[in-house]
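LAB NOTEBOOK - FOLDING QUEUE
OPERATOR: T.R.
BATCH SIZE: 2
PURPOSE: Compare the predicted structure-token outputs for two unrelated chains run back to back under identical settings.
PRIORITY: normal
REVIEWER: second-year student, initials M.K.

ITEM 1
FIELD SEQUENCE / FIELD STRUCTURE:
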Amino acid sequence: MKRYAVAAGRAFTLGLLALLDAFLVVLVLLSTILTFGMGMIFLFMPTTRLLRSRVTFARRLNGVWIGSRIEPSYLPPPPPPKPQPDGWYRHERQLYKTPRWPAWNNRLKWMLSDPATWRDALWLLLNPIIGGVLLLLPFSAVVYGLARMWFWHPVVTPLAAVLAVGGVFATPWLLRFYGWWNHLLLAPTARSVLAGRVHKLDQVRLDAVDSQAAELRRIERDLHDGAQARLVAIGMTLGAVEELMDKDPAAAKALLAKSREASSTALTELRDLVRGIHPPVLAERGLGDAVRALALDSPLKVAVTVDLKSRPDSPVESAAYFSISELLTNAVRHGGADRAWVDISGQGRTLRVTVTDDGSGGADPSRGSGLNGIERRLAAFDGVLALSSPPGGPTTATLDLPYALPTPQTGKAPSMPKWKHAVVALGWGIGWLPLFPQGLVAMFLKIFGASERSWFVALYLPEPLQWPLMVFNVFLGLTLYGLAVGLPLTHARKHAIAQTTPAHLEAGGCVV
């Protein structure tokens, strides 16, 4: 009974909130009339922010109380305006000295053109009707049934008691239906999810471009300060050897020996540089063997465990390899570690790498550029870095790249569960029965005072119960048809949103 009591309390609270939304509906309608009818456009954004706050609260309650979490469905906000070379800010054909008005105009356009704004308004308009009637109907039935207990009637009282008990047991199902209805109107669409992904990819692309530029500068600096300087020195030494070949063969021979040593050093530096760009073992043998080779060169005692059934793509392997290399370097340089453990595994499409060391701990991404560089490198592939490094150690870094491992893509939506098929069949099969004959037709006969009662159940009840039962029948029929139509649509939409994951946007991804 605790379950039904909790469901009743939540349904009653949500029903009252839905009824209170009627005042917000009046405010939104008044603001809409003033905005578009009288040109008071400055009222639109505050009203929209108020509307979004209410809808955000509804999403939160839907997840906490009904168990159906709803993510925000809004398009990404516009970026802040940037000044032109002359210091002015442009919006369409207008120039402004400050970014205030361009930013205001951009946000206004963003709210006006976002379909989620109008879906929120539709939800608010219907919520007092759907939420109030749906969630307070069981409570009304219980109150009516308890009230009839004090006025005994041989027919009405037992029916009222049955109605009260039915209201109690129907509350969890009505609450679940209300959550599904909220999800239908407030959940993200495939377009909003895709827009968010594109917005995030734009940010990742900028970070990737910056990282690539920094990497190119590092390579140029290493070449200029290392191998290039040695090759220039070798050329000058060979020039001196040419002059000394006839005059002083012994000195020429000594210079040739130095040139050979310098060429060997330059070759080693070039190999290190190439290994820093993309190790050959990584391209030939894969991530596992590359990390094992890295462990052999590390001053730490590194234990490597690899459990991968398939190889990630080359850019992903490179990002994971250099992230592991940076973590091992930090363990030696900053943590004073002696041992490290590297675990590489695949969980579905997710590549997970865990690096643990026995160092002094205290690692903080906000205090070092190395960990920030790892985060930027992983962000290009939707990867995240989770760090646990208490003072005194140990330090554990977990790298998750959620769409790194390949899987066959069929593009075909998975079949609905059997219970959903049963609900859809039930809705199409018997939805007409309470809606038309027991609901609308009975209402028609009641309004026009027809004496024929036939098989219309509501007309056989006492007068106070006839209209509530007819309204309930109409609502039940609409609910059955709504489930029959909505369940397949919701299932298809979830599959469409799943298709907008980074696996389907890899062609537009960035490589670091």
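ITEM 2
FIELD SEQUENCE / FIELD STRUCTURE:
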Amino acid sequence: MGLNKTLAKIVVEINETANKFQSSIVIKTDDKTIDAKSILGLTYTVLSSKKFELEIHGPDEEGAKKAMSHVFWKNNLPVEVV
């Protein structure tokens, strides 16, 4: 699957949302662990994965968990926050 406009918008939205927070936001999928604040890592992950797990730790983690969950949910990406 190539990077089309829809996927590009999803990647940018995930990245922009993650960068609003101080907390560490890590996406785990399959055998990969990606920093959600890394646009390059996100691009590959969103293209190649069907299931996502978020690990969020830091001073504003509750807000980050809600915001990140919402972004994944509204883009129909299956996510679990751990």
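REVIEWER COMMENT (ITEM 2): The helical segments are 5-18, 39-48, 61-74.
FOLLOW-UP: none requested
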